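Homework-ish question, so no full write-ups if that breaks the rules, but can someone show me the predicted structure for this set?
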Amino acid sequence: MSEPVLEVRDLVKEFAVGQGQVLTAVNRVDLQLAPGETLALVGESGSGKTTVGRCVLRLLDATGGTIAFAGDDVTRLAPRRLRAFRRQVQVVFQDPYDSLDPRMSVGAIVEEALRELTDTAAARRGALTKELLERVGLDPDAARLYPHHLTAGEQQRVAIARAIACDPRLLVLDEPTSSLDPITRSEIIALLRSIQAELGTAFLFISHDLVTVRHISHRIAVMYLGEVVETGPVEAVFGRPSHPYTRALLASAPSIERGREDAGISLAGEIPSPIDLPQGCFLASRCPFVLDECRAGHPALEPVSRVHHSRCLRVTGHLAPLPEAAPESAHTTPNGVPTGNRKARVVDES
Amino acid sequence: MSTLSLRLRGLGSFPARANRALIAGGAIAGLATLLAVIGPWIAPYSPTRAVGGDQLQPPSTTHFFGTDAVGMDVFSRVISAPRTDLTIALASTALAILVGTPLGAIAGYYRSRWSEALMRVSDLVQSFPVFILAMAAVIVAGHDVTSIIYVIALVNAPIYVRLVRAEVLSLRERTYVEAAVALGESGRRVVFRHLLPNAYGPILSNASVTVGMSMLLTAGLSFIGAGVRVPTPEWGSMIAIGAPNVVTGEWWPSVFPGVALSITVFGFALLGDTLARLTDPARRHP
Amino acid sequence: MSEMLHAEGVTVDYRDRQTLRDVSLTVGAGEILGVVGRSGAGKSILVRALINLVPPPGKLVDGEIRAFGTDLRAIGEAEARSLRGARIGVIVQNPRGHLNPLLRVGTQISNVYRAHHDATKAQARERAISVLRDVGIPAPEHRYAAYPHELSGGMAQRAMIAMALVCDPELLIADEPTSGLDVTIQDQILKLFRRSVDERRTGGLLVTRDMGIVARFCDRVAVLHEGEIVEQAAVPAFFSDAVHPVSTRLIASASFAADAPGPAEVAQ
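A: Not a homework solution, just the prediction itself:
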């Protein structure tokens, strides 16, 4: 690909938690984003996807690894030097109302972005604000309203207008539609796609919603416990999921197409603690296809095809291939209710 | 956008219930302020000199509130007192807010050793019994109005340091603050543009209480002789001077200034609270 | 077939606006009825109306509501309360608002159980731990002693669900019980509901915004729009033959079918 808009290598983010322990939220993640494409970062709570987003935005300082934007290493840049970066990388958050200053009018919110991040003359900002509001599907007169006058969908449109005011090359979207109702969700996704088509913005789309992700992404990276377990073009990953975790995620996401059909892959027990990570494959304690060798060493991300990578030893050819259906799992009680694996350490999901 | 015109029309409207409170509080505060300005001029008698020989006369048509033990007309003194009371109360409150707010905001946003040190100093000031501290400070600084203003401001500033810090601490977790940082805004801009304006509400509510408390503190200081000097009319000192007479049945030198003080404190409380509600765009139209 | 819930002509007023108008629906034994609609359609008020607990200033002005054949509007509050706790389980949104911050989570669940069953403290505790395990809370013996603020949002939500299930209710009314939870946990909990309904022939009413959940876990679905039921059908027929514009929009948006193909499809 031509020079990637975003290149993340070996990203590590650790947090110190009480009693000298370290929580590894992001565990050596590699990502690449080409200009104008959408990479979806998918996972559940505790996967580290939100933390990756915050690190890419430089709202958090990475503990290790590098983040390069358009070839420039921005990992260690001091806040003062980040101005140029901020003009190119913007964000849309999950909670539309909370992301808008309740005391500022809609117009003021968008104008602030113009003032901070563009060289627009003060006299021009009002007109440009109205254009931006129109671009995101709002009536330009809405500039006089305040956030609490708007519906959630409209608030998110304002947030999007604010984010594209500086015509950024990269937009990080952290669960932008998760708190919206399905009709609004599809409208916002349509809006985002039209913006990408028109402005050529690359999207880092962080989400737990596989159904939504399929309709806006070119490539997808699935995260579990701070690392990427599978990555590839979106139709390849959906069509040929190459990691038990991906298969479990897909099986749990209800959709109209699948209806009542039960794909049968489910994970037993609980996610291990990110403070005390297991030695072998992170999924071993819950995986219905686990073999003894899975616990031996930590598997690396290896190719399944030229563009499709997986961390599962059984997929990348090191061990016996994955069967189609889940075996009679040793992890479930007789009446089928999954139990916790008592040897695995457990932690709050938040 | 549906209903856009409806929403735009709602922008300028005033919630009805706030009207009554605003009118009542505003009227009282307004009257007090008016008296502060013109009180001594319109007073029928001199507020600082006795009217020969008429001590402790009960309220009558010539002396609406009667006269006190020295012979001064109580009514004239009561309406002249706001010039002192209000000046002290408003000035000291304003000073406390002007000093305490930025300090609290900085302590809340930047968490460093300096912030901690500031909070400990603030705690120290607050841990002294208010009265004792005020007394001691007045003895050092003097009995004049300016010194009293500084003293009361000092006593009240920690309230605002703490209040604003608490607001900022909770507000800085809000997503819109993260969004402002993502827009590249400097710390100073985030604090003054996004955090402080959202803290106005509690500051205003508290300000009205502080104004009232300042008046009471001034009154208290005067009561024990550490406040304004006699014969400057000041409600507190009037209550104090008239107190011995209450037991002998001459209630008017103390009660009238007492009632005036209470009503004024109440009026400011009402005003401040309503203003706090009205300046918050979200609370205006629930 | 016995009807677990029968509502007819339910109308709720809220400050001279009708938030629900002439709503009629039934939940039979062994089936789950899904209730869908946009935000503000009246789904949450409907849940409250169905158990006759509309909060003032709202008022249930008309309609018949029968649970297990008993008219909920005719019985006294004491009898209604015992029905609601023991035979009707209700799950609402905002779990934290419904957990007492001063009591341990396990105690609250045990208390519900003991309010409706003759059980010792130890038996109630066993039951509470078992139901906490069913909703997927790890180390439930330890979590039993936790206070609500010690639990993450997802856990608090699951604790609330456990509280609704502890008495093995015959009718479960749930208002978006799994919104915000991880999809694997959501799957686990909804499968739990489904299993209970299938095995014990109980009934369920599930308010949701997720059409996928309707397709997978519900037998019938009712579409609520601006306080009225505009369409009601069995699930497979609904997805193939829905007629009302709100229904078709909900279905289309769920599969994003109204839009052009996704970028990946275009690229290939």
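Now go work out the reasoning yourself. Hint: Chain A touches chain C through 56 residues (CB under 8 Å).
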